[in-house]
Amino acid sequence: MSERALLIAEVLFVLVAVAGIALWSVPAGLLAAGVLGTLACERASAAGRTGSGVRAEDAKGREGR
Predict the structure, then answer these.
(1) Which of 18, 11, 21 is nearest to 43 (CA)?
(2) In 3D, which of 13, 11, 12, 33 has the Cα closest to residue 22?
(3) Which residue has the higher pLDDT, 62 or 3?
């Protein structure tokens, strides 16, 4: 599977899980969606570049070692 296909599968899984929680309790579904959305944004920003224009791996000192 390609990386894009895995990302699509992961997003669909999270959407189904949040929808299932929302069917049980709407406030719990909104809370879970907020937490998972925040985690997704943090994950995406960590995979990209930091504010200084340096990749996250390089900023941590792991320069391909």
Answers:
(1) 11
(2) 33
(3) 3
